[in-house]
Design goal:
By secondary structure, this protein is mainly beta. The chain contains three helices and 25 strands. The strands form five sheets. Strands 2, 3, 5, 6, 9 and 11 form a six-stranded antiparallel sheet that branches. A six-stranded mixed sheet has the order 23-22-21-12-17-25. A hairpin with a 7-residue loop joins β22 and β23. The longest helix is centred in the N-terminal third of the chain and has 22 residues. It starts with a helix and ends with a helix.
């Protein structure tokens, strides 16, 4: 063997030795399989739908999206996966391959319009996933009806030298509001109704243990955010209209109905007094505006109820400016209307089509 070949062989041996030496000085990450099943049924379980079936399944053309994130003890993302199911009764299943260590696992459920391959509308967006402290889940559609329901679960899990399987059961990350307007045609000069709030929470961030913290916006208690809008002209065949709205937990949130009417050719606004509530995750509230409450001398009334807790209560909002009787002449719409309420989102779907 000539000298040149000996040098080449020597260098090759040295490279191999150096490679194994470097490997011995570094931790070699060996991945173990972690099967995570996500059962989303408890996300909507606490809520009572206004009409049966409203909350059980995704509407046609929509899917339930399930994100799973695995963060190590330093908060760094080490694995993630996304799965899609058709309703809250279906189980999502994903496989993660993770090195030995302690992890915070997050499961987040939300509704999207479209398919796994083609999402046309999402109601929540995800950013900063590379670290749990920078992860942000943000609302993309302020009026999203029941499609805005968000579910979250977290768990601490250790991955050792074996394959594992576990199940996460997310719960609702916020409160569900049902806004119902009764006798919306009682006054023929009313053209629009709105339910407004004076605070807003449009995203959440996370701590290292997986707990979440909603953001809070408050513009000097001004009622700048609308969560329910009814154009009276769209409901000629109904006496009422209702809609769902999902809101993240917020303390001391004020609710107020505003209705637009015409008086002598001039558009004016009638405004209810405010009802202030502290919204808690998993709770459900009913807001009712009745333009002719027969139990209250045919007056306009606004009540709020907590409807899925052991201590159900009713709160009322007095009117700042009322269209009460005797202020100016009004006439009722004609008879022949269906004494029923249309779900707002159903009308929106019809318009979209």
């Amino acid at each position: 063997m000539n000298k040149i070949m000996k040098k080449i062989l020597y260098l090759a041996v040295m490279i191999v030795v150096a490679f194994f030496a470097s490997c011995s000085n570094k931790e070699i990450e060996v991945g173990y399989s972690l099967n995570v099943k996500v059962d989303p049924s408890e996300v909507v379980a606490p809520f009572k739908p206004w009409s049966a079936g409203d909350l059980d399944a995704c509407p046609e053309g929509y899917m339930l999206r399930v994100h799973v994130f695995a963060y190590n003890s330093e908060g760094v993302l080490k694995g993630s996966a996304v799965s899609y199911v058709n309703n809250y009764g279906s189980i999502a299943s994903v496989d993660l391959h993770l090195p030995i260590g302690a992890y915070t696992l997050l499961a987040v459920t939300d509704v999207i319009k479209g398919t796994e391959q083609n999402t046309s509308t999402e109601y929540w967006s995800f950013s900063g996933q590379e670290n749990i402290t920078t992860l942000k889940v943000a609302k993309t559609q302020w009026i999203s009806y029941s499609r805005g329901i968000l579910g979250i679960a977290n768990i601490q899990q250790t991955v050792s030298s074996q394959n594992l399987s576990l199940t996460l059961k997310p719960k609702a990350a916020g409160a569900l509001i049902i806004s119902h307007i009764w006798n919306l045609h009682y006054y023929n000069t009313v053209s629009e109704y709105q339910l407004l709030v004076n605070r807003n929470s449009d995203f959440m961030s996370f701590s290292t243990d997986g707990s979440y913290m909603p953001s809070i916006k408050n513009n000097n208690n001004s009622y700048d955010w609308r969560i329910h809008l009814v154009d009276v002209a769209d409901y000629k065949n109904y006496t009422g209209a209702y809609a769902y709205c999902f809101l993240l937990p917020v303390s001391n949130m004020g609710f107020r109905y505003v209705y637009t009417y015409t008086d002598g050719g001039t558009k004016k606004r009638g405004t209810t007094g405010a009802i202030t509530l502290t919204l808690k995750a998993g709770e459900e509230y009913l807001m009712e505006l009745d333009m002719c409450n027969t139990e209250e001398n045919n007056d306009i009334t606004f009540y709020a109820y907590t409807i899925n807790t052991n201590s159900s209560s009713r709160r009322s909002g007095n009117f700042v400016e009322s269209m009460g009787h005797g202020q100016f002449s009004m006439t009722r719409w004609g008879d022949g209307l269906n004494v029923s309420s249309a779900k707002i989102v159903d009308l929106i779907d019809a318009i979209d089509e």
